[in-house]
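Please fill in the sequence for the structure shown.

STRUCTURE ENCODING:
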């Protein structure tokens, strides 16, 4: 049995004219959130961490690993949010790397590509956890991949992720559990550690 903790990155300022792309950094508030979720990871006794290679996830993971310095870390594009890379085989004109400029067709195509990446990444996590006899794994990622992983555990196949969402707060933790024969969604969007910070940002 393996518990997999899905952790969204800390706060990012997406307010226009700021773009939404691979290079968005955490704000100062996001850094504080990351330090808070690091304490939660310590309480959960995380044994292994997978991290999206996008900057905001990397910075969140760095804060966590300052608290959990002995936890092995695997950086992987498998759990990245959608980006221009997911449109490499798009049958039409490509947009800019700023998601604010994308059409619904761009999002639909990229989300399908992301879904496949996420499922391959999840399989790697599961196989590694079994091989290393690890019971508690964290994945530091983004709202899109976390939604895909949650919905896959509920038995859904590729879907248009923009039509219905789990609410995923900054640095929230969701937990999925996997055994040889079954899967469970244990909880979603636990963000109690930033409750007092909510007044400092808008969703």
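FILLED IN BY: designer on duty
SEQUENCE:
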């Amino acid at each position: 049995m393996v518990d997999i903790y899905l952790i969204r990155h800390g706060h990012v300022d997406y307010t226009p004219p700021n773009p939404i792309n691979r290079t968005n950094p955490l704000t100062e508030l996001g850094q504080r959130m990351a330090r808070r979720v690091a304490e939660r990871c310590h309480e959960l006794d995380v044994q292994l961490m997978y991290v999206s290679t996008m900057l905001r996830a990397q910075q969140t993971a760095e804060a966590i690993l300052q608290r959990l310095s002995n936890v092995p870390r695997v950086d992987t594009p498998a759990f990245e949010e959608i980006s221009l890379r997911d449109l490499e085989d798009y049958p039409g004109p490509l947009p800019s790397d700023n998601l604010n400029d994308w059409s619904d067709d761009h999002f639909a195509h990229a989300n399908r590509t992301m879904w496949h990446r996420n499922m391959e990444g999840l399989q790697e996590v599961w196989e590694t956890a079994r091989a290393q006899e690890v019971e508690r794994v964290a994945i530091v990622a983004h709202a899109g991949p976390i939604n895909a992983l949650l919905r896959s555990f509920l038995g859904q196949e590729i879907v248009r992720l923009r039509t219905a969402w789990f609410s995923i707060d900054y640095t929230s933790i969701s937990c999925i559990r996997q055994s040889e024969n079954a899967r469970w969604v244990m909880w979603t969007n636990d963000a109690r550690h930033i409750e007092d910070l909510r007044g400092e940002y808008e969703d």
